Amino acid sequence: MRNYKRKSDRGTKSVELMQRAADLVINENKSLRQVCRDYELSKTSLSRFIKRMKNDPVNLRFGYGSPRQIFNKEQEASLTEYLFKLAQIFHGIGPKEVRRMAYDCAIKYKISVPSTWHTNKMAGRDWMSAFLKRNTSLSIRKPEATSLSRATSFNKSNVQKFYTKLADVVDRFKFTASSMWNADETGVSTVTKPSKIVAAKGKRNVGSITSGERGTNITLLVAVSATGSSIPPMFIFPRKKFQDHFIRDGPTDCIGAGNSSGWITNDEFFLFMQHFIKHVRPSKEFPILLVLDNHSSHLSVPTLDLAKENGVVMLSFPPLCSHKLQPLDVSVYGPFKRYLSSAQDAWMRNNAGKNMTIYDIPGIVRTSLLLALTPSNIMSGFEKLAYFPSTNINLMTLILHLVT
């Protein structure tokens, strides 16, 4: 980051000194040139100050003005609070994500920003440097290494931190099983691994027809509660413009969206949060807990504001730990993928000679979800992971079991 160093002392004289010099010229009829020489002032600067003093003697200032600050103190305090909360729930973000969040905040507050902010869709490096200097409680920290693999990231320390935070949140808001939810995305491809079949014994090669060599992925978002209930899912298609007929055969009341990749982004998760709030109906008087992984798409300012306004308390898993700490991964997605594979095999047999497309997926997912999203499957995930405040499971025993 750049740190400008002054090359001269221009504009550094105090207002009091300039007033004394101006009084000598105005009231005591001293020579402007002589006063400037005695006080080591610029003749042009003193002349301009005297004019301003005659026109507006109340609001006197001298020197260079400070650069225009984008956010006021209250707005920066709000942004700082967001960053603190994100770090506390294992959602800590890097400098680039902070700069993107700052840009989102500026758009939200309708603040005029430099054109480069609009071009890059993020704040500049100089803003980031100045922001950290103004808010000394923040710093760029290097987290513990967690990128070696899921196995090395999933350790006793990380799991203990998560359960400690979970216990704090549950105790603070008095959450019960009915107010504890888990949301997660999973990919669904038009080509899946073929199921096992019965064939002649001793035959070296056994084949099975699939839709193609390489499939197209669709993202599926599901949310479930600790009491075994769920909301209609959301599909994200690899299409820039979503059409209602994409989900015509999908689960009842499901929703859809589209983008060029088919993966979840800030905009799609904001739509999902609106969909979630519509069906669960939380409020500030009756808040709910939403546990989810720490994907960057969950962190946009509009989504966080929407959650806060509607009483949705978001808690994230430590990095790369969701595969063993997430109820959906533990007890729902396994059965779902097995039912999905069988349903796709059946579809291929019933539609011989046709390739499965992304528009066939919602109808196939509908039957598979009905079989996988049973109350017993959903509840078993929360129970196995001791999410309930009253679960009769020794937490330390569970943690040791999970990490070994």
TrEMBL record:
Cellular compartments per GO CC: nucleus
GO molecular function, one term: DNA binding
Domain called DDE-1: residue spans: 219-382
Cited Pfam families: DDE_1 (PF03184)
Residues spanning the signal sequence: none
PANTHER family: TRANSPOSON (PTHR19303), ZINC FINGER PHD-TYPE DOMAIN-CONTAINING PROTEIN (PTHR19303:SF71)
Descriptive protein name: DDE-1 domain-containing protein
Organism encoding this protein: Parnassius mnemosyne (clouded apollo)
